[in-house]
Amino acid sequence: MKKSVKRVLWILLVALLVFVVWYAWPRAPIITAYAAKGMCSSVFLADKDPGRVYEEDLSFFPISLARCRIDYDEKTVTSRVLGLAKRKAVYREGLGAVLVLDQPEEELKAASFNIPDPGYSQDTLPWPKGDLLPAEKPEGVDYVKLDSVIQNAFDPDGTDPMKKTLGVAVVYDNQLIAEKYKAGYDLHTMFHGWSMTKSIAGTLIGILVDEGKMKVDEPTGIPAWSNDVRKNITVEHILHMSSGLEWVENYFTISEATLMLMRSSDMFSFVVNCEAAHDPGTFWNYSSGDINLLSGLIRNTLNDDEAYHQYPYTRLLHRIGMLNTVIETDASGLFVASSYCYGTTRDWARFGLLLLNKGVFEGDTVVSPEWVEYMQTPAPASEGTYAATFWLKEPDPLNILKDIREEIYFADGFLGQRVYIIPSRKLVVVRMGYSLTNFSLNDFLRDIISTLPEQTGS
Questions:
Q1: How many CB atoms lie within 10 A of CB 121?
Q2: Are 287 and 246 in contact (CB under 8 A)?
Q3: Are 67 and 85 spatial neighbours (Cβ–Cβ below 8 Å)?
Q4: What whole-number distance in Å separates Cα of residue 271 and Cα of residue 233?
Q5: Phi, psi at 57, each rounded to 5°
Q6: d(Cα 235, Cα 246) in Å, to the nearest integer?
Q7: Cα dihedral sign for 334, 336, 340, 343?
């Protein structure tokens, strides 16, 4: 009997060692890199309490295994798992947090960028460009029911987190008619938008197209691709997630996505080095790499890093009141347009409002109506799921919008962040959160729509 027990224990021990060596250890640096970068951005950019960062941004397994040490004087974060797999991130003013990888730490710390002055204060301006809300709200809305729907989207104070919503904003008929935040947060709190940043990138491409500086139907002109099938990849293929490049988008293992985000100092070069797996335009594959290609193409088009770093702020964000939004760069200075943008719930609502109004914001045509329509047009290879940096259908079968009959398109973030635009209902709905495990997007949207007047068309 004792021999049998010992044999079982030895088998379990060997199995554990195999698991650690084969599975856990190679992933440990990804875990610690994710934690260091996330904590650094959350504390020094979004001004969040570290305890809340652990409870929210870093709360899911295996990221929850990491522990961080914060140096407030140096504005750095060092992360480890069981004392091992050390990774460090540093904060740079105006550029956000970045992992210390190939470049010396002191060199990274020396980098900074002065975000342009928008030239106005939101404290004294009415919504949507400012923060002053009108006394009167649009008629015909069941505000009592709407308040109940919004309240129900949050976990009650003092309870275990289930729904994990951080902020909600509802814009109807151009007015902010409802908003709510998890206790301790407010309209000034910046949340991580994750892949909603992709839709900002798509809008910036549209502005460049409107300015005559870029054409979507032309090849990228990337020199490294000149001698193979990749030379045929156009900007449109990339906008449609149909570049054909070899890519796996999986954040829970070692994949091209995690290698790019957690182990690369130059993300544009990382993606440029990916091989072709399909002919361009023939195969749809969701890829953060494609969007960082777009970011690099914007940089190449402007051909001036100062102009490139100013461009999102002067040509888009500040024109629509997104004054509390920052897009972070990698160590090479590339905007990580796939994933690294922090902004307030109201700012994301303003972004949705710009699109709802076909690119016009308070009389200012920020991006052409034709481009906004293009961003809603299905990508040919996506079977109606995706357009040009916007989703048309929920990608997760568990979150299918089965009760939503209206045409809808939306920006989608990794941990349950959404900006929904429903033109026929004159509606924008923003949900910021850190999980969708116990949250029904279908019910949430359906119940909000049910509080509005009958559909009148776009």
A1: 10
A2: no
A3: no
A4: 13
A5: -60, -35
A6: 17
A7: positive
CA atoms within 13 Å, Cβ hemisphere of 121: 2
C-alpha to C-alpha distance for 88 and 262, rounded to whole angstroms: 11
> Are 296 and 308 in contact, with CB atoms under 8 Å apart?
no
Cis-peptide into 380, omega within 30 deg: no
Q: Note down pLDDT in tens along the chain; length 458 residues.
A: 566 656 655 556 555 444 444 455 578 999 999 999 999 999 999 999 999 999 999 999 999 999 999 999 999 999 999 899 999 999 999 999 999 999 999 999 999 999 999 999 999 999 999 999 999 999 999 999 999 999 999 999 989 999 999 999 999 999 999 999 999 999 999 999 999 999 999 999 999 999 999 999 999 999 999 999 999 999 999 999 999 999 999 988 899 999 999 999 999 999 999 999 999 999 999 999 999 999 999 999 999 999 999 999 999 999 999 999 999 999 999 999 999 999 999 999 999 999 999 999 999 999 999 999 999 999 999 999 999 999 999 998 889 999 999 999 999 999 999 999 999 999 999 999 999 999 999 999 999 999 999 875 44
Q: Which residues contact 359 (CB under 8 A, 6 or more apart)?
A: 206, 365, 366, 367, 368, 369, 371, 372
Q: Which of 183, 425, 197, 213 is nearest to 304 (CA)?
A: 213
Helix ranges (DSSP H) in 63-188: 105-110, 143-152
Cα–Cα nearest to 408, from 355, 334, 347, 337 = 355
**Distance set, CA 416 to CA 87, 154, 315, 419 (Å):** 26, 13, 28, 10
Please indicate, yes or no, whether the overall pTM of this predicted structure exceeds 0.90: yes
State the Cα–Cα distance between residues 101 and 30, nearest whole angstrom: 12
Q: How far is CA 115 from the centre of its chain?
A: 20
DSSP per-residue codes, 426-442: TEEEEEEES--TT--HH
CB atoms within 10 A of CB 309: 21
